[in-house]
């Protein structure tokens, strides 16, 4: 019996050691989950179409559509080696699509000083390629505004200063000033730096957007003044770009 017990104990230790070695893998599969809130209150499409949120300017509003584009998820290690997932996703909160996705590209395990992604498309991605899936979802920007694609569509209704329910369309694109003989463009895509991360196994990154930030920091947004026709509004696009810098946050990592 002692011999049998010893064999069983040996097998248990061997199996445990084998499991320990599997805790760290050389290449990790990654999943990205996107959640949304209004200053900490969860927002999903079940909360749409009801005026229930108050922005920093004191206006009550609803959300009826929210979708936005992310691209080029990038990891940079302490040696400044960069690992990029060269793909994009249209996060569609309205239709509950692409809120979670797992790229086919794997990333080496290790410690990275930054995890980032591009909000929208950079100029090369925006203008050098044709994306049938984005074309089919009315994501294009008119040629008179420079072409390419939207970065975000946030739409809803708000109570204006006459207590009338009024629609708004907070659409972000590359800024263009058409007031002169030659259009002037300003880049408004931006890199979202989610900070340092360590990957030891297949990982799930939980990323959250605080929708309220689009209306308050550093520019307090007055929907009575800026509610529609914002795509050709150069200054409005710059303000949106500035307000977007603090919208996203890495909530947690599961692995």
UniProtKB/TrEMBL annotation:
Pfam families for this protein: MbnP (PF20243)
PROSITE patterns tied to this protein: PROKAR_LIPOPROTEIN
Record InterPro entries: MbnP-like_dom
Every Copper-binding protein MbnP-like domain range: 28-224
Protein known as: Copper-binding protein MbnP-like domain-containing protein
Organism: Litoribaculum gwangyangense
